[in-house]
């Protein structure tokens, strides 16, 4: 038995809760540390980097959910750890006002917990989706769950921002406690009973983690797809920390206009995801490989346009090019995640969680690495040349990585069979 549409939406609520808690750390707490506490911006950057680094444990959490015979407890337990980490992160900011060292110690522990919680809950959730979603619904399931996660991010950022004014430490803790406790409750209600209806209960497998990991790593398909995920996601995240500064320094955007630019980009992401979800699952147009390649090449084209506009057409409107980039980013993301879900079931049986964990770890490392690399490269280049060509060089590098990712998808992903029936690598590769 496979997941119904209602059950897919219920699991999407878990993704929404994940996004709701994580966005508190990347937006609200980030701003409080930099503005209200006048701390260097690198501090929240390093803390966020810590939670990405901790997610290298994703394969072990996926393996545990494979071998212990039940993913539900890892989803709920991981969300509880994430909630504790989210509240502790807010507490760390409050303590920093009076004692920087004590607040920093609490924050380090909190962001480590956030990394563990996201790894445990997120990986187990994706493994459950990969295991129990019908092949012809995978693209739509990926679209639904990712749109719900983005919705959780947007709704939380908007409502917390509204309720937090005027800011007081007590109000911050009250709001964060409400969000985190609510996330655990919603996750529990959303996931409870779903797994036992769609996945046959199996006996626990006592194989040690490293033996199970070696089994998966020995699969050439898993190794190649891991490289593809790392390369493409590094390209995806390279512009994350530099797009808004680029718009301000080169196109004279105000802070408000830069924020609106980010919103426009995410609007494009939404649209790209919806197009793939409908086109692939409902209209059955094209293979997943085709959607991935179009998304990668379209993203590369948009990035070249953005770079060229800074150098030769700063008077031209930047927003349409950024929306176009977001559209192709969204198309690529959903198609790649759908391929991930399909590939997770190939190879050694009952290792879906381990494979999803391996690719999730590659994605998390790429997110941290890509963002920091893009920012560092832009800063370094700006000491040698003007702002426009400095940022443009980073965007062009990102475009090249997307072209390489498209080439990898062309070589390794199978297009001989229908879109959602098979997203596997070409036999013999």
Automatic annotation (TrEMBL):
It is a multi-pass membrane protein. One of its GO terms (cellular component) is membrane. Keywords: Membrane, Transmembrane, Transmembrane helix. SUPFAM superfamilies: MFS general substrate transporter (SSF103473). It is found in: Membrane. Its main location: membrane. The chain crosses the membrane at residues 35-54, 74-96, 108-132, 144-164, 170-192, 224-243, 263-283, 290-309, 321-344, 356-378, 390-410. Belongs to the PucC family. This is BCD family chlorophyll transporter-like MFS transporter. It comes from Rhodovulum marinum.
